[in-house]
Amino acid sequence: MSDTPKKSENTKGKATPKRSAAVAKNKVNSITSPATKEGRTKDKAAARVRRMEARAAYMRGDQNALPARDKGPVKKYVRDYVDSKRSIGEYFLPLIMVVLVLTVIPNREVQLLAILFMYTAMIYSIISGFLFSRKIRKLVNDKFPGEPTKGLGMYGWLRSTQMRRMRAPSPQMNRGDSIN
Q1: Which is it for the CA torsion 8, 12, 15, 18, positive or negative?
Q2: What is the mean pLDDT of residues 13-35?
Q3: Rounded CA separation 73/172 (Å)
Q4: Percent of the chain with pLDDT over 70
Q5: Which one of 26, 45, 65 terminates a domain?
Q6: For residue 180, is it within any domain?
Q7: Same domain, yes or no, for 53 and 121?
Q8: Containing domain of residue 49, as a range?
Q9: Percent with pLDDT over 90 in the chain
Q10: Domain count for the chain
C-alpha cells in the first residue's frame, strides 16, 4: 500500500469557487431590481408612476384604492356628511398659531387672553366633537340599519378637525350640499 491518497474518479477538474461567488450564483431574489443600472432606473420610474396613480385614486376616493379604515358605503357617507358641514375643529390649528404669536407679545393681559381663547376653543371643539359624533351615529343608524357604528363618531370627528384641503381622501362634497 502506498501512502499517497487515491484520486477519486469524480474529480471535478477545476478550482472550488469562493463562497461569495457560490452564494451569488444560487441567490434568486424576485424582489430586488435588475442588476443593470438602466433596469433599476426603469423599475424606479415604473414604481413612482404606480405610487402616483395609487395616490391619485386614493385622493379621488376610489373604493379599491382606499385602506380598510376608509372603505365601505358607511364610511363614505360619514366622509360626505363631515365634508358638507363647517366645524370649529378645522380652524383649530390656525387659531393655535394665532395664539402662539399672541403669547410672544410681552404684555401679560394679551398673553392671558390668548391662552384663555385657546382653552375656550379647545373645550368648544371637544364638546362639539362629542355632539357631532352622536349625530353621526344616529344618522348612520337611520340610513344603514343593522350596520355597526363603533368608531364612526371618532372617524367623523377626527376628519372634521382636519383642515379641509388637508383631508384624505379629498372632500367629494361642497359645504352646504345635502347628502341623501
Answers
A1: negative
A2: 73
A3: 14
A4: 88
A5: 65
A6: no
A7: no
A8: 36-65
A9: 38
A10: 2
Residue 138 is assigned to a structural domain of this protein: yes
Q: Give the span between the Cα atoms of 9 and 7, in whole angstroms.
A: 6
CA distance 119 to 111: 12
Q: What's the CA gap between 58 and 67, in Å, rounded? A: 8
Cell triple for residue 59? 385622493
CB atoms within 10 A of CB 156: 26
> H or E element: which one contains 160?
helix 152-160
Length of the chain counted residue by residue: 180
Please check whether residues 74 and 158 belong to one and the same domain: yes
Angle, helices 152-160/108-143, rounded to nearest 10 degrees:
140
- State how far the Cα of 22 lies from the Cα of 14, in Å rounded to an integer: 14
For residues 174 and 84, is the Cβ–Cβ distance under 8 A? yes
pLDDT at 33 over 80: no
Q: How far apart are CA 174 and CA 52, in angstroms?
A: 25
Pair 144, 60 in one domain: no
57-116 per-position pLDDT tens digit: 888 888 888 888 889 999 999 999 999 988 888 888 888 899 999 999 999 999 999 999
Residue 46 in domain: yes
Q: What is the distance between the alpha carbons of residues 93 and 156, in angstroms, rounded to a whole number?
A: 17
CB 149 within 8 A of CB 140: yes
Whether residues 81 and 53 fall in one domain: no
